[in-house]
Design a protein that fits this description.
By secondary structure, the protein is α/β, with parallel strands linked by helices. The chain folds into two domains: 154 residues, no CATH class; 249 residues, L-arginine/glycine Amidinotransferase, Chain A, CATH 3.75.10. Helix content is 42%, strand content 14%. It is built from eleven helices and 15 strands. Helix 1 packs antiparallel against helix 5, helix 2 crosses helix 5 and helix 3 crosses helix 5.
């Protein structure tokens, strides 16, 4: 295995700290400015006596609301940094509480600088002011935090991710193999108990551990031979499915998306993959509950991301992936599947982006547009090794013959012990290129 020489990754925690702070600050500035302008307009119109000049009333109004708005700016930045601007309803609750705090702080400072004594009557007056001068501040701050806050926050994070990913978001831009592209594959040695791995859509068969280890070594050697930089994820001896590293992470450009397995027992595999990614230059993001998303359900074909609606990936997971992928310039298509564990069990892509699929497991194969039908189930899972070479399971000779007819060099590899566990040639590595 190759050793790591790259710089540490910008991980989710750092994204939520540095980059997230910048996004939170911009969001807070938008909320604060909108709140201040609303207060100035609404409260300035309350002086209908025309005794004071418009400039004087505007100045007095600004003086009254400037401090609460500054406090609101600080507090909204803080909650944005903590990740509470992701959903409008969480932002609305936060906005209401922050408006109460900011309005109270502003009024307390005003009274304190005026030499007021803080008695019970004083605190009662402070509270009642939320039904008076501070009412418009309370309402506008709550509404704008719920509406403007999340919108600006998502927009800023998306813009920053575009800068990091280096992708141009326009139709027709395809990411294909190139000799100049670096190719990274994360692999993980089989556990000591592969026979305990989950099997969902096929009958369980006895796994020969020694033969599985030999097949895994041959697989890794094949990746090395074709220019992949293979890195081992720390071994997980008691996690029988951990050899299938593809299920834990999806890589789009320079962004690695850590999934959340639909099988709760497999979520313990994630920390090891996260640690391995920390030694790369990929920016990482994470899928959060209640979403579930397995990497085996995500197929990248050119600038289109197909995501399987399966027993392992739910609607929330598809929505979460769609939000990230669209920001990175990809088109996202959800594909319902039946009778198969993952989308890439029944559909993968050739180096030019053409999908090869086992259609009996697809509810709507037309979602792929043009596609090639695999002549056998185990042939639907193929792995491009480079721009001219495709890895096909040794159990799919008809598919190997078909791919050769398309002008590709074909390498066949026996992975029968992993196929007993519903694994394919893509499952055994998580790849970035």
């Amino acid at each position: 295995m190759s050793t790591n020489t790259s710089q540490p990754v910008t991980r989710v925690s750092q994204l939520d700290g540095g980059t997230r702070f910048n996004a939170a600050l911009v969001s807070a500035m938008g909320v604060a400015l909108a709140t201040l302008l609303t207060c100035l307009v609404v409260m300035n119109e309350r002086d209908l006596t025309l005794v004071l000049s418009p400039f004087t009333t505007l100045s007095n109004t600004f003086d009254f609301y400037s401090l609460p708005v500054l406090v609101l700016l600080f507090l909204v930045t803080l909650v944005g940094w903590l990740g509470w601007l992701r959903n409008w309803w969480i932002a609305a609750i936060a906005g209401f509480v922050l408006a109460l705090i900011a309005g109270t702080v502003g009024y307390v400072v005003r009274l304190a600088t005026g030499g007021a004594d803080f008695t019970g009557e004083t605190w009662s007056a402070i509270f009642m002011e939320f039904f008076g001068l501070n009412f418009v501040f309370l309402v506008s701050a709550t509404v704008y935090t719920a509406i403007i806050g999340p919108a600006l926050f998502r927009r800023q994070v998306a813009d920053m991710l575009r800068d990091v990913s280096g992708r141009v978001a326009h139709a027709g831009e395809l990411r294909r193999f190139s000799e100049s592209n670096s190719k990274l594959a994360l692999v993980r040695i089989p556990a000591a108990n592969p026979q305990d791995a989950q099997v969902t859509f096929q009958e369980r068969a006895e796994v020969d551990r020694d033969r599985a280890n030999e097949q895994w070594e041959s697989y890794v050697a094949l990746l090395d031979e074709h220019g992949w930089e293979t890195r081992e994820v720390p071994a997980a001896e008691t996690m029988p499915d951990s050899v299938f590293t593809e299920d834990q992470v999806i890589v789009l450009g320079e962004v690695a998306i850590l999934g959340r397995s639909g099988a709760a027992s497999r979520r313990a595999e994630l920390p090891g993959v996260r640690a391995a990614l920390a030694e790369t230059e990929l920016v990482t993001m994470e899928i959060e509950a209640p979403a579930t998303l397995d990497g085996g359900d995500v197929l990248l074909a050119g600038d289109t991301v197909y995501v399987g609606a399966s027993t392992r990936t739910n609607a929330e997971g598809i929505r979460a992936l769609r939000e990230i992928a669209l920001d990175l310039g990809y088109r996202v298509v959800a594909v319902p599947i039946r009778g198969a564990l993952h989308l890439k069990t029944v559909a993968t892509a050739l180096p030019d982006g053409t999908v090869i699929a086992w259609t009996p497991a697809l509810e709507q194969p037309s979602l792929f547009g043009g596609y090639i039908e695999a002549p056998e189930l185990l042939g639907a899972s193929v792995l491009p090794l480079d721009s001219e070479t495709v890895l096909v399971s040794a159990a799919a000779p008809a598919t190997a013959k078909l791919v050769k007819r398309l002008g590709y060099s074909v390498v066949s590899l026996d992975i029968s012990e992993f196929e007993k566990l519903e694994g394919g040639v893509t499952c055994l590595s998580a790849r970035a290129y």
